[in-house]
Amino acid sequence: MKCKRCQVPAVVALPSHHTAFCKDCFLIFARRLVERAIKEHSMFTLDDRILIAISGGKDSLALSWQLKELGYNIEGLHIDLGIPESSPIARAYTERFCAKTGIPLHVIETASLGLAMCDVKRRVKRPICSVCGQTKRYLFNKHAQENGFTVLATGHNLDDETSRLFANVMRWDVEFLSDQGPVMPAEKGFAKKVKPLFRLTEFETANLCFLAGIDYGYAPCPYSSKASFPIYKKLLADLEDIQPGRKIRFYDGFIKDGRPGFAPRGETTVDIEPCTTCGYPTSAGECGVCRLKNVMRDA
Amino acid sequence: MITVRLEPENRDLTIDRAATVTQLLHKLGRKPGRALVIRDGGLLTPDLNLKYGDHIIVRDVGSKG
C-alpha cells in the first residue's frame, strides 16, 4: 500500500477516505482536518486565549499538540478526579506532556472541593458518570470564565460525536439534538465551547499521537463500564466497516440539514440565573455542584 | 510463530500463523481501523506481510471512559 500523495510506502490506511498515507503526509492530512474544522465553524482565531480540557488521553493530548503546532495561544486544565485506580496515571501523563511541550497547565483536584469521585460514588445515588460530567463541565467553565479565556476546547472526536448523536436520536432527545454540534456559543455565563477534532476518528487521533511521538494514558475509568456510548460507538464502527465514510456523512448531514429542524420555536421558557451560592449559571436557584457539595458535607 | 502484545491490557500471546496484518487481526477478533499494529517501532497497514518470529504490538484505540 502506497501513500496517495507521495507514493512512498504508507503507514496508515484510511478506508473512510479511500486513501493511505506515509507519516509526513498523514500529519499534513490530520492538520488540515483540524484547520478545516476551525475555519468552517469559526471556532477561534490566533487572538483568542484558548483553554484546553486535558484528560491525559489520546484525544486531548493530540488536540493540544496540534493547536500548539498551529501557533494558537493555549493553556491546559486537568481535573484530578480523585479516583485512585486511574486519576494519578492520567495526571502524570498530562503533566509529562505539558512539561515536554511547554504548554502551561492548571490542575484542579476535586478532592480539594470535597468531591473526590471515589467518595461521591459511594454517597450519591445518581449515575456517577452523570455527576462526574456535571462536575467537570462546571470546573472547566468556571476556570475559563474566571481566568479570561475566550474559548474552551475539548478533544471530542468523530466517534464521540456520532455516538452521542446516535444516542440522542434513539431517545429523540429534542433538547440535546437542538444544540449538539462542534461549537456552542458563549451565552448566559457559559464560555464558548469548541471541538476542533470532530472530523478525526479515534483511530486517526491514535495514529496522530503515535506518529507525533505523543505518549498518552490508557488507564480507563473504573466506573465507566455501564456507560452507554461505547455500545453506540461499536454499532457505528460496524456500520462504517460496511459503508466507509458513513459516520462523517451522518454528522455533517445532521449539522447542515437535521439540527435546524430541532431548533426551539419561540422564546425558551427556562430562565438562567447565577447560582445563589457560587454565581455559576443555573436554572435551579442553587447549581448542581453546590447542591452536590451540600450532600457530601451532610453525609 | 508470531508473538503479540495486546494493549492496553498488556497481555502477551503467540499466534502460530498469520500471513498478513489483516489475518492477524482476524485471529485476534479485531478489525483494521480499530487498532494500531506496530512492529519494530513502526506502524503496519493491513495489507503487509508478517513473518515467522515477528514481535507485534496490537494497540486498541477505542476509549473506554
Instruction: Report low-confidence residues of chain B grouped into runs of 5 or more.
Output: none
What is the averaged pLDDT score of chain B? 94
Task: Round the Cα radius of gyration of chain B to an integer and report it.
Answer: 11 Å
Order of helices and strands of chain A: EEHEHEHEHHEHHEEHHHEEH
Strand order of the largest sheet of chain A: 5-4-3-6-8-7
Can you walk me through this structure?
The complex is a heterodimer of chains A (299) and B (65). By secondary structure, chain A is an alpha/beta fold. Chain A has 11 helices and 10 strands. In chain A, the strands form 3 sheets. Chain A has a 6-stranded mixed sheet with strand order 5-4-3-6-8-7, sandwiched between helices. The mean pLDDT of chain B is 94. The relative contact order of chain B is 0.32. By secondary structure, chain B is mainly β. Chain B has a 5-stranded mixed sheet, covered by helices on one side. Chain B is globular and about 35 Å long. Chains A and B meet through strand 1, helix 8 and helix 9 of A and strand 4 of B.
